[in-house]
Amino acid sequence: MDFHISLWRPYLGALMMALATSGWAAEPLTLADALRIAAGRSQLLAANESALSAARKMADAAYPLPDPVLKMGVDNLPINGADRFSLTRDFMTMRRIGIMQELPSAEKRKLRAQRLSADALKVQADQQMTLSSVQRSTAAAWIDRYYAQALRRLIEEQVEEAKLQVQSAETAYRGARGSQADVFAARGALSSLQDRLSQALRQERNAALMLARWVGPDAERPPDGPPPWQTTYLEHGLTVDHLRTHPDLALAAAVVEAAEAEARLANANRKSDWTVEASYSQRGSAFGNMISIGVSLPLQLDRANRQDQELAAKLALVDEAKARYEDLLRNHEAELRVMLGDWQTGKERLARYASEVIPAAQQRAEAALAAYQGGKGDLASVLSARRDAIDVRAQALTLEMETARQWAQLNFLAADHSHQEQP
User: Fold this and answer.
1) pLDDT in the model for residue 165
2) Distance in angstroms (rounded) separating the CA atoms of residues 48 and 53
3) Which of 221, 248, 325, 392 has the most CB atoms within 10 Å of its CB?
4) CA 331/CA 317 separation, integer angstroms
């Protein structure tokens, strides 16, 4: 025991000093705090925010008319003879300046903006999926940290009791009221608990390191819990509206919207856009100046094999996106029903542990101790019963941790905006 504690004393001392100097010892880390900090630290969310801003600005820029085109040139410039390369002597030579404007219909411009807005919806859905993933991962890491601490405290309590048991066995042996075998058995039980404590400390340290991935230095703050794993908004029934909040489905719905916007735009492209042009031409001083006005319109001479085929392709992509959405909806419905069933089963098992399993193990340990103290039992039976009681409580903690992790997967199915950093 002394050798084991000596290994950890520098680490524990440094940790306690850090907590004392930072003031975190009095500020436990709640689950809500962890979620808020993780959302604020996520670089993926920052990248999503930038991408979303870019997509929205692109949509805003799509509706106005295209930029007009400034056109300048020289027409009918002689390249041989006496007037070659002269801009003024030949009556046909003109210095021209003009402007051209493409005139897509307001409907087409609106549809292009809607198409880019659908891209923004996809980016927004991806952002929500990232936020949901960050929150689920953070909640799972926080839960692991909390239950690793709870298990370590449970074993520490048992270590202290085992120390007293060793002292009692040694005292009884010196007073000729016990055997040397009892002393060895008590010491063996203490060593076993010390080894379990070493494992628990390692698990707690590793859990803190994993939580630090999401919350940084705040992972050193003691978790404040337990998490509210007993209830979730999905426990009263899984509806289609609940399923649609799943980030994967929200992204798939945005893909459907983008495909439909593409199809609407392809249908609008079956009508040609007009282009108007006006120019002013200046000739030599001996000749009159001129203006030119023109209109151009593409001729869709093979619409059946071009524009109509493009529209058919876009409509096929809409059907594909809808089919993928429906398949994803069914898949997630099955997954969530399994998760909800596992969570409810975990609750039932924990209730059984609390009402039957743990009390029975504790009563057996107390009965074995009373028999030993009354001279009707041996210390080995007491130690065995105590080990069983510890194992049962540890199993209950492990089951509660698994149930809490299942709760986190359900409860943070969709991003919880209440834990995001406020601007």
Assistant:
1) 79
2) 9
3) 221
4) 21
Burial 340-353 (b: 16+ CB within 10 A, else e): beebeebbebbeeb
State whether CATH 3.40.350.10 applies to domain 30-413. no
> Residue 297: what residue type?
L
pLDDT at 23: 41
pLDDT (0 to 100) of residue 6: 38
List, run by run, the mean pLDDT of 10-residue segments along the chain (423 residues).
Answer: 38 44 62 90 82 85 88 90 85 91 89 87 85 90 93 89 82 78 84 90 93 90 86 74 79 91 90 92 87 91 88 94 93 87 92 93 89 78 84 91 91 61 36
Amino acid letter, 207: A
Half-sphere exposure of 233 (CA within 13 A, CB side): 11
Cα–Cα dist 261/269, whole Å: 12
Chain centroid offset of residue 364 CA:
46
* Contact between 406 and 381 (Cβ < 8 Å): no
User: What CA–CA distance (Å, rounded) separates 341 from 337?
Assistant: 6
| Domain spans of the chain, in order of start | 30-413
Cα separation of 181 and 79, whole Å? 120
Q: DSSP string spanning 74-104?
A: EES---SSTTTT-SSSSTT-EEEEEEEEEE-
Distance CA 70, CA 289 (A): 19
- pTM of this structure: 0.73
What is the b/e burial string over 272-303, where b = at least 16 CB atoms within 10 angstroms of the residue's CB? eeebebebebbbbeeeeeeeeeeeeeeeeeee
